[in-house]
Amino acid sequence: MELGESENAPLQAQVVLSFQSYPTTRCVLLEVQVPAALAQPGQSVGSAVFDCFEAALGAEVRIWSYTQPRFQKELNLTQQLPDCRGLQVRDSIQKCRALPWLNVSADGDDVRLVLDVSEEQRFSLLLYWNQAQGASKPRWHSNLTGPQNITLSHTDLVPCLCIQVWPLEPDSVRTSFCPFRKDPRAHRNLWRTARLSLLPLRNWKLEAPCSLQAEVVLCWQAPGGGPCQPLAPPMLRENVTMNKILKFPLLKEHPNLCVQVSNWEKLQIQECPWADSLGPLKNDVLLVETRGPQDNRSLCALEPHGCTPLPSRVSTRAARLGEQLLQDLHSGQCVQLWDGDDLGALWTCPLDKYIHRRWALVWLACLLLAAVLFVFLFLKKDRVKAPTRGRAVLLLHSADGAGFERAVGALASALGRLPLRVAVDLWSRQELSAQGPLAWVHGQRRQTLQEGGVVVLLFSPGAAALCREWLQGGAAAPGNHDPHDAFPASLNCVLPDFLQGRAPGCYVVACFDGLLPPDAVPAPFRAVPVYSLPSQMPDFLRCLQGRRASRPGRLLADRAEQVSRALQPALDSCFLSPGAPGPVTGPE
Fold first, then answer.
1. Helices (H), 135-289
2. Distance CA 178, CA 162 (A)
3. Residue 120's closest CA among 98, 103, 102, 138?
4. Would you call 341 helix, strand, or coil by DSSP?
5. Which residues pair with 60 in a beta bridge?
6. Do residues 249 and 322 lie in contact, with contact meaning Cβ atoms separated by under 8 Å?
7. For the chain: N or C, fewer Cβ within 10 A?
8. At a CB cut-off of 8 Å and minimum separation 6, what does 98 contact?
9. From its phi and psi, is residue 332 left (phi > 0), alpha (psi between -120 and 50) or beta?
10. Roughly how many angstroms between the first and final C-alpha of the chain, as a whole number?
11. In 3-state terms, what secondary structure has residue 50?
12. What CA–CA distance (Å, rounded) separates 481 from 419?
């Protein structure tokens, strides 16, 4: 309370009342005055009653109140109001007599809503998600005539699914209730529908229909199976808010970095969000750097049994390579994933070169033995049966930004899980830098076609513009394109095949729905089949498999659905990415 101009002036304060009840929200400001004679320290002088808020019967209301200035702790509570199903309310409120009576009963695994009203009475039924912060999302609404029996599938149940029903009369009373809050099936469905979405600029969010208690932590997944090991830094285990955009505190992404979402210490979701765009899990070791006072730091290598200090005399793989790993770190051959200033840092160092060095002689002996065996079988038989491995696929694309490359990586990863052997420059950046784009594309194309494979030209707006520039005025200026972009180099190799009629049977052209229409592909490249993905995914997979496509129709359709499902989130992210190529509506 504020003191007036004189000691006998009344004390006064302002009280803010906020009242939230779907679908309305109201807020009022009250001014309260108390005679100074009644104001004694530490004693209550009375109470204020405000009864002008209106809410539907059975509604869930949220009341928030505080004073200005704030003398005491604020009031914040949620109240469930009685509805017309209560006998006392039914007798005291006349409008309850005309309200439809709704019961929820089991119908096998499903749920049945029984509305017991007269045949002539018309009413409205609304199903909605009662989400956090008072927001509600309608799911289904219909005007009906009673009586009605409505069946809800058990797969549609979530804890925040609520029902609101009211007669189609002026100023009718609405009854709302949420009967599935404690239903185990609803909680299982909620976690089935929850998913982790990767957004541009290392942003992410956890999407779910209802608010739920969840903890999120980063973990490191080593290849070859085993549990994903949580990383306290850089991301402490903390509660997250559903459908809120958050940011990964990382300097660089890695395919072995995964995200675990837990509820009451039970793991619900584990995803490796960068595996599609960066390729499969790598045989890298994660070094954890701990920093102490006086610039004192220590390093350990994360292994399945724990973190092994470096250097160390224990008999583990990381300990045996301890000196070499420290040399790699100091010489700049390791990649820093996170820097936490005083907390420490995370580094990844490749182990492939050490494995290759140790097993070089063993591999050479195996290759020689395989070569001798192959020659023996070739001489013994007139025809050697082709090995039962997937058809080789070389995926060529233009570097049109990070969003487009994520979509290309998702498509390549999904195709690689089929009986196909996929090669793409995103997974071979080291070889591409060492050989040069032209030599790499030429070698991959020759190997793919010699093995009876197929070359896929994935056109984007940037690729189409580059081809038109190439066809009209020769090669584009080298400075205009990314030196690691293999697509300009691929034109030197593949364009003669199209111009000389050798492309059919060896090449396929594809583009993404909404990004480039098929008729915007330059004319010389339309001499082979052109597919728009994911809408033409079944025909695209049938063309990639070639003679191996003698599969049951159901199996091919299932594989097409799997690839489309894996591609769609990355394609949606491509349209949201600020560096994504703009859609093209047709040929110029």
1. 184-193, 275-278
2. 4
3. 98
4. coil
5. 80
6. no
7. C
8. 121, 167, 169, 172
9. left
10. 73
11. coil
12. 34
Residue 164 in contact with residue 233, Cβ under 8 Å?
no
How do beta strands 420-424 and 391-397 pair? parallel
Q: 386 Cβ partners below 8 Å, 6+ apart?
A: none
Sequential DSSP letters for 111-177: EEEEEE--TT-EEEEEEEEE-GGG-EEEEEEEEEESSEEEEE-GGG--TTEEEEEEESSTTPPPEEE
Coil, helix or strand at residue 59: coil
- Of the listed ranges 134-138, 150-154, 527-531, the least confidently predicted one is 134-138
Task: Please give the Cα distance from 178 to 59 (Å, whole number).
Answer: 10
Say if residues 487 and 455 touch (Cβ distance below 8 Å).
Answer: no
Distance CA 268, CA 260 (A): 8
- Could you say which DSSP state residue 413 is in? H
Q: What is the pLDDT of residue 493?
A: 83
pLDDT, residue 284, reads 92
* Residue 531 confidence (pLDDT): 93
Question: Strand 215-220 to strand 257-263: parallel, antiparallel, or no bridges (unpaired)?
Answer: antiparallel
pLDDT of 287 > 90? The answer is: yes
Locate tokens 């990649």: which residue?
335
Comparing 288-297, 321-330, 417-426, the range with the smallest average pLDDT is 288-297
Residue 214 and residue 261 in contact, taking contact as beta carbons nearer than 8 Å: yes
Element (H, E) at 317: helix 317-320
pLDDT computed for residue 97 by the predictor: 54
Give kind and range of the element (H or E) at residue 310. Answer: strand 306-310
Q: Give the span between the Cα atoms of 154 and 543, in whole angstroms.
A: 39
CB distance 448 to 455 below 8 Å:
yes
Between the ranges 118-122, 173-177, 392-396, where is the mean pLDDT highest?
A: 392-396
Query: Is the per-residue pLDDT at 551 higher than 70?
Result: no
Is the pLDDT assigned to residue 436 strictly greater than 90?
Answer: no
CA-CA distance, 87 to 65, in Å (whole number)? 31
pLDDT at 258: 92
Alpha-carbon gap, residue 419 to 31, rounded angstroms: 74
Provide the 8-state DSSP code for 518.
G
- What angle (nearest 5°) sits at the alpha carbon of residue 282, between those of residues 278 and 285? 125
Q: Which residues, at least 6 apart from 464, have a Cβ–Cβ distance to it below 8 Å?
A: 516, 520, 521, 522, 584
Nearest to 439 by CA among 486, 497, 502: 486
Q: How far is CA 284 from the centre of its chain?
A: 24
